[in-house]
Fold this protein.
Amino acid sequence: MPSLEEDTESELQALVGTTVAGKYRVDRLIGRGGMGAVFQATNLAIGKRVALKFLDHEAARNREACQRFQREAEAASMAESAHIVQIFDSGVTDAGLPFLVMELLTGEDLRARLRREQRLSAPSALRIASQVLRALTRAHEAGIVHRDLKPDNIFLCARDDDPSFVKIVDFGISKVARVRSADTLTRSGTVLGTAFYMSPEQAQSFADIDGRTDLFSLGAILFEMLSGHPPHDGRTYEAVLIAICTHDAVDVRTRAPQVPEAVAALVSRALQRERAQRFQSAPEFLAAIAELEGTFTHDGPSWVTPSAPRKVLTNDSAKSTQRRRYGTLVAGIIATLAGFALTAYLVAHGGVSSDPSKEAAPRPSASSAALSGSVTQPSPPPTSSALRIEAGAGAPAPRLSGAEKPRRPVLPRPSAHVASGLQLSTKEP
């Protein structure tokens, strides 16, 4: 005898190839949930591909499940955000199965991304959180509280302009504040929602749940994106709820030390157990993230503070600086050769006694001192150029002032080996 699960599977497969409501052809099964399944379908009237979400027969007989299904359609339609999945139509098949016609999303949910990558960089995590907050801003303005935010309900669409464009799905247990109803979609002793991401007030079934419960849930999701683990843990559903209500979340850096301090502070504020100490609205939370994005720059998998800008020379300014330094060095070499030639000339013509005992030693000129190295001249002032000119292994000779220039001797032309000793170095100073 086939099991209930096998019957459900057969029932779902039987839908493939059928036409729903006279215009939606069911093409293939693309996903299953606890109460139904999602199919890819085609709108035969215009040829557009869509997603068809069905409740199975078992769930269709459950009044509460049907209410949740209908509420998803109403809530998503009321919010009207680019970051909330669009719902185009709804109805019931001839066999009595409720269905929703939704936009067909291509990509993966955040749960699948975290399974594959374990954790995300701070910029990636905050970028996803920002888009969720834009969706929550519209939903809260429409009086809708999602109440079941979790990685499974955050879909990352692969689009040409953004590989991780966020769409929030599944508003099935959302609370519509404008509708007065004693039915809060809870059962005796049961709290609907996912334990790891539930706020303390939702875990305790407070009657005045508001948008701040979604902000706590997003804080828990952000914690998991950064660290790979939810902020509260436990062996059972009830143990997790008790931990959420009685213990503050640990600093995310205890599990992910690479997270910047400012990001850790943001997560900590979102996870405050007292609602008054959290962000008070989605726009406030979003503004805090935007401020962080202006403080840090993305550099690989982590965030770093921006470094001081380096001075960059254009080609023209670099060449000009190079010519000036080259000219200074050549002038120094020529002056040194001039001093040597003058000394040789005076000795050859008797201007200088060969006997040092008969004549006081002459005061060395600047050029001869530079040649012998007996006097240290100040180095030329540094320039901002990244190029450095080196004359062989020695230091560059200083520029001579007008007073230090020798009389007009006959100067030899620099030999080839002197000119070849000039080297241009592109090493960083």
The chain has three domains: 9-104, 106-307, 315-352+364-425.
